[in-house]
Design brief:
CATH topology of the largest domain: Rossmann fold
Organism: Sunxiuqinia dokdonensis
CATH architecture of the largest domain: 3-Layer(aba) Sandwich
Number of helices: 14
Pfam family, one: 2-Hacid_dh
Radius of gyration: 25 Å
Function: Catalyzes the reversible oxidation of 3-phospho-D-glycerate to 3-phosphonooxypyruvate, the first step of the phosphorylated L-serine biosynthesis pathway. Also catalyzes the reversible oxidation of 2-hydroxyglutarate to 2-oxoglutarate.
Strand order of the largest sheet: 8-7-6-9-10-11-12
Helix content: 25-40%
Bound molecules: 1,4-dihydronicotinamide adenine dinucleotide, 2-oxo-3-(phosphonooxy)propanoic acid
Keywords: NAD, Oxidoreductase
GO molecular function, one term: phosphoglycerate dehydrogenase activity
Structural class: alpha/beta
Mean pLDDT: 97
CATH class of the largest domain: Alpha Beta
């Protein structure tokens, strides 16, 4: 039986894909084999000894201690693209909320309760205070052209905006999906100097923390509207407060409000609703569960953020999976040990990603002795071994 712990509410449509004769699912387990999580912060959590994999039902993995997981041989998955349409739609809503004072107007309209028959006239008299601008013809800078950024860029272009994209690491897959009408920014300076709206669709990492700071605000037009449906830590709050105060930023729309931004003027705060649609929650849960099962049952790795992709058809016989440091001479030590122990390799796959190498080895025996795992684990540089019978 595999034990799967859910750290957030995970859509049952996904969880039902765990067959109950082989899986136990609960929100509390002392030593689970797998964890499924959404946004809960795991950095202070001690990783359970049996833990083999963490699946993030969503895109951002900044809530997961990736390096610690890698060092302990724990494979971390996410579900790329599974919630991208939901975030695209809310980002488009953000563009409109940044342009027309719909939020302020709604608040004001509620204050008219009790004015009886006067309400329609008061509405007409007061609406001037909430007028705005159109997005058509304005320039949008999209920073990050991944699953979400490409959809946002294409949708904004279809709504009549001029769109400039910026992503020095754009993947071929996403480049193919980008409308040819989306312009390529030559660099940050020209991108920000030309933008009426800037939207962030990049991950939060050590490299991107405080990505929007006083230097970037300096490059922006006065009255720019900034959208952040990516992560709060991408924007430096002190510099944002100064940019709002000086009129550089006309509106900041954020899906990640904090105590600091809640107190600022001109900020529209959304309570992290980007991926909160029935469709996205289902998509993410199904993908997370499928990837977790594929790894636990077959050792195959699909959409991991810390391990290489590795898929090999299981042709029968015992399967041994081994993760090791990506250094020379590991495969030969492992295969020599297998030969010494009398195992013939029927099929083998070796993949690597950064510091990690991962092997899937099928042997032509139905069962492998569990003690074999300990012998492989004793080879210096081996991080994780598991036998799948
Ligand atoms: N508001 C919400 O509920 C949600 C927020 N997100 C956030 O959005 C982020 C992006 O999500 P996806 O598009 O699905 O991820 P993705 O991995 O498909 O795309 C991210 C893109 O950002 C690019 N990038 C990375 N560093 C960059 C930099 N310094 N400058 C320019 N581009 C850079 C990458 O090359 C990649 O193309 C997630 O990491 C997460 O933080 C994602 C889903 C839901
Ligand atoms: O997928 C992401 O990165 C998100 O921010 C969505 O978070 P959530 O699953 O709604 O807690």
């Amino acid at each position: 039986m595999f034990k799967i712990q859910t750290l957030n509410k995970i859509d049952p449509e996904g969880l039902k894909n765990f067959p109950l004769d082989r899986y136990e699912i609960a929100s509390e387990f002392s030593n689970p084999d797998g964890i499924i999580v959404r946004s809960m912060k795991m950095h202070d959590m001690k990783l359970p000894g049996n833990l083999k994999a963490i699946a993030r039902a969503g895109a951002g993995v900044n809530n997961i201690p990736i390096d610690k997981c890698t060092n302990q041989g724990v494979v971390v998955f996410n579900t790329p693209g599974a919630n991208a349409h939901a975030v695209k739609e809310l980002t488009i809503a953000g563009l409109l909320l940044a342009s027309r004072d719909v939020a302020g107007g709604i608040e004001w309209a509620k204050t008219l309760i009790g004015q009886g028959d006067q309400v329609p006239a008061l509405i007409e008299a007061g609406k001037n205070n909430f007028a705005g601008q159109e997005i058509r013809g304005k320039t949008l800078a999209v920073i990050g052209l991944g699953a979400i950024g490409v959809l946002v860029a294409n949708a904004a272009q279809a709504l009549g905006m001029k769109v400039l994209g910026y992503d020095p690491f754009i993947s071929v897959k996403h480049a193919w999906k980008l409308s040819r009408n989306v312009g390529r920014a030559e660099g940050m300076e020209s991108l920000l100097a030309n933008a009426d709206y800037v939207t962030l669709q990049i991950p939060l990492s050590d490299e991107t923390k405080n990505f929007i700071n006083k230097d970037k605000f300096k490059m922006m037009k006065d009255g720019v509207r900034l959208l952040n449906f990516a992560r709060g830590g991408l924007v430096n709050n002190t510099d944002l407060a100064a940019a709002i105060e000086s009129g550089k930023v006309a509106r900041y729309v954020t899906d990640f409000p904090d105590e600091g931004t809640l107190k600022m003027d001109k900020v529209i705060s959304i309570p992290h609703l980007g991926a909160s649609t029935a469709e996205s929650e289902t998509n993410c849960a199904i993908m997370a569960v499928d990837q977790m099962r594929e790894f636990l049952e077959n050792g195959n790795i699909i959409n991991s953020v810390n391990f290489p992709a590795a898929e090999m058809e299981h042709t029968g016989g015992a399967r041994i999976i081994v993760a090791n440091k990506n250094i020379p001479n590991m495969v030969s030590q492992i295969s020599t040990l297998l030969a010494t122990e009398g195992y013939n390799i029927a099929n083998m796959l070796n993949r690597n990603k950064a510091e990690i190498a991962y092997n899937i080895i099928d042997v032509d025996r139905k069962q492998a002795d569990p003690a074999l795992a300990d012998k492989i684990a004793a080879i210096s540089g081996v991080i994780m071994v598991r036998i799948i019978q």
